[in-house]
Specification:
Elements: E1 12-21, E2 25-29, E3 35-53, E4 57-61, H1 75-82, E5 88-92, H2 103-114, H3 121-127, H4 131-136, E6 140-144, E7 148-151, E8 157-163, H5 170-175, H6 194-202, H7 209-215, H8 218-227, E9 233-236, E10 243-246, H9 250-260, E11 266-272
Helix pairs in contact: 1-2
Length: about 270
């Protein structure tokens, strides 16, 4: 049963970090249609801001507030109801959506944490496949349909996130997959430093990338632009449309972000941890 903490006397604020799928291997599909994944996930030092206070209701502000529901269709509202909680929440939406960055899942998981609620994995999973890993808010290997989450130790990874600000339908991307029985990662080695992690990650993949480019060909142009900055790893996150580049230093990531700035694109340098 979820915990039911007392009311909040003083508002509390926290970062709902962007979730990045460093890898995403599609390893199968269950009889009920849900796809099985093997994914390494890291969290950025940027994201949405949430404030939780006594009361009830949800207010959404920020540059990407448009289109975010404030009724019970919002994961934050659903998560609080599942936890048996009433809270007044202000969400400052800084991440584009939908974007493959787990924004809604991270928002909900962060609100639950700030409210002091602890839900079972099955309850978290009922909110969405990304919610269990977002509840850890740390690097992890996520398998199955999102229920198997094992924390990992990763060195800091300087990164640039690029979203072309067009939406990609996740169901459409999965329907465009040619093959669902791909190999998983096998054992994930320990990483001595950032360069070792980058070398291993470069040999991995996102099995949704080709399918997403069929649905939204513009993703290919984003990936090409990132590669031209000299990124050691260039990949799409989740089902898109956000793509990322990984670099050996924060200075290199900052230089790449400046080179990628253009009208209609959301570009942010950050560190994945």
């Amino acid at each position: 049963m979820p915990s039911r903490p007392p009311g909040i006397d003083v508002p509390v604020r926290g970062l709902a970090p962007a979730k990045v799928n460093l890898t995403l291997h599609v390893t199968g599909r269950r009889a009920d249609g849900y796809h099985l994944l093997d994914s390494l996930v890291a969290f950025a030092d940027i994201g949405d801001l949430v404030t939780v206070a006594a009361g009830d209701g949800l207010v959404v502000t920020g540059p990407f507030a448009a289109g975010v529901p404030t009724d019970d269709g919002n994961l934050i509202r659903r998560a609080l109801q599942l936890g048996g909680l009433r809270r007044a929440v202000t969400l400052e939406k800084r991440l584009p959506h939908p974007a493959g960055l787990g924004g809604g899942s991270s928002d909900a998981a962060t609100v639950l944490s700030l409210a002091g609620a602890t839900l079972l994995i099955a309850d978290l999973l009922s909110l969405g496949a990304d919610v269990p890993v977002c509840a850890t808010a740390r690097a992890a290997r996520m398998r199955g349909v999102g229920e198997d989450v094992v924390p990992l130790v990763l060195p800091p990874l300087p990164a640039v996130l690029v979203n072309p600000c067009f939406a990609v339908s996740t169901p459409s991307v999965f329907r465009a997959l040619d093959h669902v029985g791909n190999a998983g990662h096998g054992a994930v080695p320990p990483f001595s430093d950032t360069d070792a992690a980058l070398s291993w990650l470069a040999a991995q993949r996102n099995d949704l990338e080709t399918a997403a480019m069929r649905v939204a060909p513009g993703i290919g142009g984003v990936l090409d632009a990132i590669r031209e900055t000299g990124a050691q790893v260039t990949r799409m996150s989740g089902s898109g449309a956000t793509c990322f580049g990984l670099y050996s230093t924060q200075a290199a990531a900052g230089t790449a972000a400046a080179a990628l700035e253009r009208d209609g694109w959301w570009v942010r340098a950050c560190t994945l941890r």
